[in-house]
């Protein structure tokens, strides 16, 4: 086993795979100076630790197994979805070869890692080339459109015609503006006279309003009080009616909830889910979920009591996943459904 393999494999991990490796290392007591939480250690720091630690082969072996299992689990998830490509196949082959699970003993891991890096570079180059081609085509099409528009304008002599039309419009607008100025001057003089007359009328109106308001204030207050009392009585009656209707709706809602709970209890499928994440009981509507956070350790699990067996693969090592599948098939003839994360599970 060469530590260079481990470091190169480490640098090919996705963010999710790297987090899984650190969680496994933390569970086995792995510690790094300056980090209270091992799961926060950057890739470069972990690579430097492995590169400088030449004597602790046990650490290298644990990291190799953890990295390889994380890659294999992710590749299996991608391949199950039918998204096979050269990089996925290469990563799966490299990880299995590193664990001595490959069929060809002469396979060179270094060579396969070189092929993986070349495949990534080719993919990046193809993406850049495709984007550049699209930009060139778009620019070429825009230039053609602009040339056609310019040619059509020059051939039709439209600029000269528009210039003559604008000159005529400017002349007409100038004449109209002069007429409006003269008319506005007359209007301003008339407005001044009207304002003077309005001031006198406003003074008279204010005096009369003051006299009338004093006489009507008592009558208006009495009418307002009667109106408010009537509105209060109507609101009180409406409130009593609404409270009665709310009681009836609460009773109906309680009955519907009881019927719904009974229906779900009788018709929902019972599922055993292996995961280390705490989930609410109603997280998957239509299913009764029983959570198991571990497997083995001398405890027998009654697979026959459940309709389906689910496993969140990111929470367990590859070996543990295989043990669960064998036990479910042997003891209850049950197939195991695997999901990389609970977020990808779709329920009806």
Write down the overall geometry: flat
**Tally of strands:** 4
Q: Please bin the fraction of helical residues.
A: 55-70%
Name the structural class.
Answer: alpha/beta
Largest sheet: 4 strands, parallel
Helix and strand arrangement:
Blueprint: H1 3-10, H2 15-27, H3 43-52, H4 57-80, H5 86-98, H6 109-156, H7 158-267, E1 269-274, E2 287-292, E3 308-312, H8 318-332, E4 336-339
Parallel strand pairs: 1-2, 1-3, 3-4
Helix pairs in contact: 1-3, 1-4, 2-4, 4-5, 5-6
How would you explain this protein's 3D organization?
This protein is α/β, with parallel strands linked by helices and 348 residues long. Helix content is 69%, strand content 6%. The chain is built from 8 helices and 4 strands. It has helices at residues 3-10, 15-27, 43-52, 57-80, 86-98, 109-156, 158-267, 318-332; strands at residues 269-274, 287-292, 308-312, 336-339. A 4-stranded parallel β-sheet has the order 2-1-3-4. Helix 1 (3-10) packs across helix 4 (57-80), helix 4 (57-80) runs antiparallel to helix 5 (86-98) and helix 5 packs antiparallel against helix 6. It is flat and about 105 Å long. The model is unreliable at 101-107 (pLDDT under 50).
Notable characteristics:
four-stranded parallel β-sheet; 348 residues; 69% helix; alpha/beta; flat
Task: Compose a concise summary of this entry.
The chain has about 350 residues and is an alpha/beta fold.
């Amino acid at each position: 086993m060469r530590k260079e393999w481990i470091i190169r494999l480490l640098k090919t991990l996705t963010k999710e795979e790297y987090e899984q490796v650190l969680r496994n290392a933390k569970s086995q007591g792995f510690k790094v100076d300056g980090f209270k939480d091992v799961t926060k250690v950057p890739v470069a720091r972990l690579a430097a630790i492995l590169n400088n630690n030449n004597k602790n082969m046990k650490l290298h072996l644990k990291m190799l197994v953890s990295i390889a299992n994380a890659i294999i689990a992710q590749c299996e998830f991608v391949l199950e979805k039918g998204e096979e490509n050269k990089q996925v196949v290469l990563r799966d082959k490299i990880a299995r070869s590193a664990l001595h699970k490959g069929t060809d003993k002469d396979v060179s891991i270094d060579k396969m890692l070189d092929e993986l890096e070349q495949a990534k570079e080719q993919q990046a180059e193809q993406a850049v080339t495709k984007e550049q081609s699209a930009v060139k085509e778009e620019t070429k099409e825009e230039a053609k459109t602009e040339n056609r528009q310019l040619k059509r304008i020059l051939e039709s002599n439209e600029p000269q015609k528009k210039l003559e039309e604008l000159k005529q419009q400017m002349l007409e607008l100038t004449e109209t503006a002069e007429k409006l100025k003269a008319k506005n001057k007359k209007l301003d003089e008339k407005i001044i006279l009207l304002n003077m007359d309005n001031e006198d009328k406003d003074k008279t109106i204010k005096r009369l309003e003051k006299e009338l308001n004093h006489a009507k204030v008592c009558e208006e207050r009495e009418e307002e009080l009667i109106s408010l009392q009537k509105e209060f009585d109507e609101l009180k009656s409406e409130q009593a009616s609404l409270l009665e209707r709310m009681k009836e709706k609460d009773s109906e809602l309680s009955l519907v909830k009881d019927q719904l709970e009974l229906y779900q209890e009788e018709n929902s499928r019972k599922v055993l889910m292996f995961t280390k994440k705490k989930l609410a009981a109603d997280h998957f509507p239509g299913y009764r979920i029983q959570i198991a956070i571990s497997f083995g350790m001398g405890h027998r699990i009654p697979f026959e009591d459940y309709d389906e067996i689910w496993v969140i693969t990111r929470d367990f090592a590859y070996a543990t996943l295989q043990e669960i599948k064998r036990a479910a098939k042997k003891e209850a003839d049950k197939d195991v459904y695997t999901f990389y994360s609970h977020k990808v599970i779709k329920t009806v």
